[in-house]
Design a protein that fits this description.
Helix Hairpins, BirA Bifunctional Protein, domain 2, eight-stranded mixed β-sheet, three-stranded mixed β-sheet, 17 strands
């Protein structure tokens, strides 16, 4: 959520920043006007309450002296009625302002390039070499079918489209990836592992920015008012909702594996083959709570933590800095890591690493105590570390052989009981 004080003091800067994202900057004018009226009402109510306090003292004095106080009492009642009416109007205005603020995206950082969509994203780096083959490499869905390790057809029978059943070595590889990634982040990069619930409430979804804007993209229970989490960012960030964290405890790093659930409502017809774009997928999520002055340095560290997984798997990838129009709703700056899929001959996102500045902290009321001991909103960051439904296809396609086997990356073999290749049973 944007700071209403910042909007009030520099509305034009906010309008220009939102225009970079293609957002409706016209709403800022209505917010400023509503906030102006809100503050005028507050001032009027405070004046009326002071008037009532004086009247109350005068009435008590009149009664003590035996004088008729009926006129003063009637006047005081009229003022009280006016206060009630103004309080009701104030509540309505505040609800309207809050609803508008919840629908406004974060302001892009100055280092974020201009642009309306992914065509304007900026290439930051490439790592490793694309694998070369003496044969035409297959896409992962064909490899999964031939090796009988991915079964989308039976998953469709169980549930519907955009689900899979991981079988045999496929299930083992999925589990190996999760354990490998968690071990790297917790043992080497200082993250604390957490295993949160998968179901989240409305306050949690609102706190990280999924609601109200993206409610139609979420799977929701009929009863109670809970959602299937679209990403562990929701659960882990909200672990500290409505808390004040001592500055000495920052930064805090968490890593969490969870299944994630998304309708992918805006992705009809895109990546429908294989397991790239699923309604249910597994992901290791990295979340940081940090001091504002360190947050962009922490973003660079977060990016390197996610990159390390791909380096150890020896997978070719590139890092893209997203332009303003392609940056997510709550983010001020985002890097996407895209792994090369040799069979599909395309880059696919395997991680997004984002700095949300104080946007989520303001929505979820997460603060730390500053130098003057006053509570201040901290900054939150998160990154996929990584999504297995994107990573496993890259491995299958990069490590396939002409004889329809898949060589297991060396770093995963200890997690797979020493298996060095996946073959058809």
């Amino acid at each position: 959520m944007l700071d209403i004080k910042f909007i009030r003091e520099d509305a034009e800067t906010v309008k220009k920043a939102l225009a970079r994202r293609g957002a409706d900057a016209a709403q800022i004018g209505s917010v400023v006007e509503a906030d102006k009226k809100r503050r005028a009402i507050i001032q009027e109510v405070e004046g009326l309450k002071a008037e009532n306090n004086r009247a109350s003292s005068e009435i008590a004095k009149m009664k003590k002296e035996g004088r008729d106080a009926s006129g003063a009492i009637a006047g005081m009642k009229a003022v009280t009625d006016k206060i009630k009416a103004l309080d009701s109007e104030l509540s309505s205005i505040e609800a309207r302002v809050n609803e508008t603020l919840l629908g406004l995206p974060n302001i892009p950082h100055g280092s974020v390039p201009d642009g309306a969509d992914d065509k304007s994203n900026k290439l930051i780096l490439e790592w490793g070499e694309k694998p070369s083959f003496s044969f035409k490499p297959l896409p992962h869905w064909e490899i999964g079918e031939k090796l009988d390790i991915l079964d989308n057809d039976r998953a469709a029978k169980i549930t519907g489209a955009r689900f899979t059943v991981y079988k045999g070595a496929g299930a083992l590889l999925e589990r190996a990836l999760i354990n490998f990634m968690l071990d790297i982040q917790t043992r080497e990069h200082g993250y604390t592992e957490v295993a949160p619930p998968v179901l989240v409430n409305r306050a949690s979804m609102t706190g990280t920015g999924q609601l109200p804007k993206f409610e139609d993209d979420s799977f929701k229970l009929a009863e109670p008012d809970w959602f299937l989490s679209p990403t562990a960012e929701v659960q882990v960030t909200n672990m500290h909702r409505e808390e004040i964290i001592p500055a000495a405890k920052l930064p805090i790093y968490y890593a969490a594996y969870t299944p994630c659930f998304r309708k992918e409502a805006g992705a009809h017809g895109k990546d429908t083959k294989g397991i790239i774009r699923m309604h249910q997928f597994n992901k290791v999520e990295l979340v940081k709570f940090v001091l504002p002055e360190t947050s962009f340095d922490e973003l660079e560290k977060l990016l390197k933590n996610a990159e390390e997984i791909l380096k150890r798997l020896n997978l070719h990838y590139r890092v893209m800095l997203l332009c303003a129009g392609d940056t997510g709703f709550a983010s001020a700056k985002t890097y996407d890591i895209e792994a090369w899929q040799a069979g599909a001959e395309a880059y696919r996102e395997v991680s997004s690493c984002s700095n949300f500045t104080d946007f989520q902290a303001r929505r979820a009321s997460i603060k730390y105590r500053g130098a003057d001991n006053k509570p201040v909103f901290l900054h939150t960051l998160n990154g996929s570390g990584l999504a297995t439904s994107r990573l496993l296809p890259a491995i299958l396609e990069a490590y396939q052989t002409k004889d329809m086997e898949v060589i297991v990356p060396e770093v995963l073999r200890p997690y797979m009981g020493g298996i060095d290749r996946i073959t058809k049973k």
